[in-house]
């Protein structure tokens, strides 16, 4: 495109555009070198309403001219959210399209996207509302990927737009890419990992609304714009049960539709751990729990694979016989949980009546859950299964191997470790390297602090003056005890780690040494607290006994009461269950 012509369109040079009416068609049809945009595309992109109106008046054929991507000027304006420009283009098209109605609105680009698809994909609520009001049937059109405008809105988490489409066009299309539908997209985007961020976003939205209402008291004319901004902010909140219920009410068959992987919406909800959606879908149709994907995996298999205990509990509570479902490799959900190392789910299945006769179930290779846990080297799950008297430890698979033949731990180590499992049933996994690392860091920090504390006092020359005070003597004893216990914790941890690395038959001893290291670390914390209280007594003296008493009581409550209380609540809440 000629540079002078391009600049004239951008700057809105009316005189130059009027001269175009006397020019040849070759001048009018000039396009840019990149996307092959016409002068009307450029005007739509820059938002020049008067310029675009003058161009259409002179050359109405440019309304339907497309660029290299197949985009009409309406596509360009919809992508950028140019509401006034879109209204102008639509009104002008009504005057031009006498024989073929709504041709511009239904034009598609190379991806088969209409202007509505483009507007939804970019989250322009006003543009979507305008286009649907002009032609509601746009909500029925699928693009080349099979995506409807409603699917795109949910997939991009623009739920205000999705709600508007659903309310305005009840017969809209629900289809999406890869044979998915709107329910698939809603459940995928409603992953529970993002609920905390969404909740924070909702709090911020509430605060914004309160501010908007306050501003409206001072400036009522701003209410309409402020309310619209509030609606747009709500469009980024997580999908709610009301939307899912509305979709299921309008089209219940969506819950049983499978994508290319064979996954129905329930499979996605189970795999992502969304127990609320799982219950909602099962209340709509309980038979969904028995649907399998192309690998033969049911929702219970997928929840076991991902380690979502609450989902597994709801599935077995509503559909108890799903425990008997087998995948294409003849594996139960217990096999899958053992293969994935999901200790919390395995522990639940062992207590569930539906699995009482399935603990020794063999898959197509003859492997029981114990075989699989041993082969995958999931020591915690392996020991948990081996410690259950109902599990057949001598079962042989098709290769003639027992679980102990496939285990990284010899039978003697397993037997020695069963007692350790019983004593640590409610706590973190004994074999967790993360737990040992945390204990090592804490012990090292306490050793460094207590070592530095006593030498700091000596360097300041205060030992001679404080030596006779009982509080100082207690401080020295507690500080020394904390230092000794922390160093002992580090030593025992290293001995256990090295011993386990040299010989596998010492794994049980390594577990016990690790437990002792944690116990020494805990006692060193208590010693440091006592040292702090004694030091406070020395600093405060007899004249400030009240200050000392308050400080000591507060410190003791935090260490001896608050710490164990939080730990107990956390372990019962399931933090260490995975």
Write the layout of secondary structure elements.
Elements: H1 3-11, H2 14-20, H3 25-28, H4 39-46, H5 49-58, H6 73-80, H7 83-96, H8 115-121, H9 125-134, H10 149-155, H11 159-168, H12 182-189, H13 195-218, H14 223-234, H15 241-250, H16 265-272, H17 275-284, H18 299-306, H19 309-318, H20 333-340, H21 343-351, H22 369-375, H23 379-386, H24 403-406, H25 411-423, H26 433-460, H27 463-466, H28 470-502, H29 507-540, H30 545-573
Helix pairs in contact: 1-4, 2-5, 4-5, 4-6, 5-7, 6-7, 6-8, 7-9, 8-9, 8-10, 9-11, 10-11, 10-12, 12-16, 13-14, 16-17, 16-18, 17-19, 18-19, 18-20, 20-22, 21-23, 22-23, 25-29, 26-28, 26-29, 28-29, 29-30
Distance between the termini: 63 Å
Number of strands: 0
The oligomeric status of these chains comes to: single chain
Largest sheet features: none
Content-based structural category: mainly alpha
Our Rg estimate from Cα atoms comes to 35 Å
- Unreliable sequence segments: 192-201, 218-238, 419-432, 501-506, 543-547, 570-578
Mean pLDDT: 77
The tally of helices reads 30
**What is the H/E order?**
HHHHHHHHHHHHHHHHHHHHHHHHHHHHHH
* Relative strand content: under 5%
The coarse silhouette is flat
